[in-house]
């Protein structure tokens, strides 16, 4: 038998609004009041819930206006990945989307304690540990510092030494190293007494030689340095080249650029030099092409070492999104993979294409062009960064903000300083105070 009971339909979008009488509520897209104007403050919905303030206390409501937590906390963060942090009497804890406190409200505060890979950092009495999404402490709260999990592992510090734990809280390495990099392609790099080696997921050191420096694995191989020379090892710790190169780039698309006696060429994954070491400079392959310099001029070769774009340019950047920035007669423009000029040589400086737009500079002003040469965002800014996740930081008359790809100021250009976004948050300064903003422009300043 079919039920005729209608499902509750929540409004798709609600916006916090102040009614002119210092009371906050929520309206929908046609400015209709949906949640009454009864709150002293309110923030935008995040993951279906909004933080509201009443009688100097904070809590959360859903889109029907129902309180999912008591409005009793001194401070709250917005929901992220199903959880949020709340402050009560100077201590912090975590709640889930049902409003349940999954941990006691006992921890000390740190600004960067969201769940990552199912674990969150917690601080108590100046010591650190981790909890899981049930609120269980998977490690003792004993470390001097801890770092976010990456592929199931996290770096920890104790008494000035480093080690690595797994997602069960087990120390898979002794806490004895001077420095550590968290896993790359299944390995962690560790330093002890000025020498470096790699450790696998079981805690076993795969390299018998202790190198002066090492870089992370890329396409199954890692750069290692010994006695001022560089070479490559594989994941078994075997050297696939002699440690003889003056410098090198990591593997990209099956090839690595190497420098020997001031000249550059390329090796393959067997360590064989397949493109002669004869260039003044070389960069890694990108989009099937490598930027190389010969006799002071820039051009491009393919993976067979064949010149595909002539050595005529004064400067160049590697291909990005199908286009390369090149400089000719003192001005910058862009070419495609056939070497055809697609954007005229008229700019004083340019950056590579990211997210379909390139940052360009002319007469000390910055703007953005598309791949057809249309200046989609006028060259009017005093400074700017390239786009990342749909936003670009810009500076105008000494103030900073963020624009979208249409040039609209999503976050007002009003801040005295701003950093780029990291994990959805950007640090900002305004009127002598430091705080942070999210990508909707919501501000978090200490009161």
Rounded to an integer in angstroms, the radius of gyration calculated over CA atoms is 27 Å
Main sheet strand line-up: 21-22-23-24
Report the sheet-strand fraction.
Answer: over 45%
Beta strands, count: 44
Instruction: Please state the overall shape, judged from the principal axes of the Cα atoms.
Output: flat
N→C terminal distance = 57 Å
Q: Percentage of helical residues?
A: under 10%
So how many helices? 0
Average pLDDT for all residues: 93
- The computed structural class is mainly beta
Query: Which segments are poorly predicted (pLDDT under 50) over 5 or more consecutive residues?
Result: 1-8
Give the biggest beta sheet.
Answer: 4 strands, antiparallel
Describe the protein's architecture and organization.
It is a single chain. This protein is mainly beta and 447 residues long. Among the domains are: 10-103, no CATH class; 389-447, Thrombin, subunit H. Helices cover 0% and strands 46% of the residues. The protein contains no helices and 44 strands. The chain has a 4-stranded antiparallel β-sheet with strand order 21-22-23-24, with no helix packed on it. A hairpin with a 2-residue loop joins strand 30 and strand 31. The termini are far apart.
């Amino acid at each position: 038998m079919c039920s005729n009971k209608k499902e509750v339909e929540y409004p798709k979008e609600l916006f916090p609004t102040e009614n002119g009488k210092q009371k906050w509520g929520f309206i929908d897209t046609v400015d209709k009041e949906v949640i009454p104007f009864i709150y002293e403050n309110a923030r935008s919905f995040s993951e279906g819930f909004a933080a509201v303030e009443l009688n100097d206390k904070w809590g959360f409501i859903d889109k029907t206006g129902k309180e999912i937590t008591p409005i009793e906390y001194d401070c709250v963060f917005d929901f992220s990945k199903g959880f949020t942090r709340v402050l009560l009497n100077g201590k912090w804890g975590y709640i889930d989307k049902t409003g349940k406190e999954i941990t006691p409200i006992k921890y000390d505060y740190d600004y960067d304690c969201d769940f990552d890979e199912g674990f969150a950092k917690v601080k108590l009495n100046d010591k650190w540990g981790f909890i899981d999404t049930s609120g269980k402490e998977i490690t003792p709260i004993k470390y001097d510092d801890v770092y976010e999990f990456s592929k199931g592992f996290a770096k920890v510090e104790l008494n000035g030494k480093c080690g690595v734990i797994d997602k069960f809280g087990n120390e898979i390495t002794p806490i004895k190293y001077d420095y550590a990099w968290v896993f790359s392609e299944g390995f962690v790099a560790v330093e002890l007494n000025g020498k470096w080696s790699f450790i696998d997921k079981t805690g076993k050191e795969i390299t018998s030689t202790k190198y002066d420096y090492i870089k992370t694995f890329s396409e199954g191989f890692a750069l290692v340095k010994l006695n001022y020379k560089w070479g490559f090892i594989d994941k078994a710790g075997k050297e696939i080249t002699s440690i003889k190169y003056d410098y090198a780039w990591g593997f990209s698309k099956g090839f690595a650029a190497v420098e020997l006696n001031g000249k550059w060429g390329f090796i393959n994954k067997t360590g064989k030099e397949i493109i002669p070491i004869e260039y003044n400079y070389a960069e890694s392959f990108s989009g099937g092409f490598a930027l190389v310099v010969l006799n002071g001029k820039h051009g491009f070769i393919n993976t067979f070492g064949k010149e595909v774009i002539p050595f005529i340019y004064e400067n160049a950047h590697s291909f990005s999104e199908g286009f390369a920035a090149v400089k000719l007669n003192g001005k910058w423009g862009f070419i495609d993979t056939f070497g055809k000029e697609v954007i005229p040589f008229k700019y004083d400086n340019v950056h590579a294409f990211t997210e379909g737009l390139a940052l360009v500079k002319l007469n000390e002003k910055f703007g953005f062009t598309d791949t057809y040469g249309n200046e989609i965002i006028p060259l009017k800014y005093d400074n700017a960064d390239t786009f990342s996740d749909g936003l670009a930081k810009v500076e105008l008359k000494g103030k900073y903000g963020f624009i979208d790809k249409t040039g609209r100021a999503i976050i007002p250009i009003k801040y005295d300083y701003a950093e780029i976004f990291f994990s959805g948050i950007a640090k900002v300064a305004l009127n002598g105070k430091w705080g942070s903003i999210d990508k909707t422009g919501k501000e978090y300043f200490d009161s």
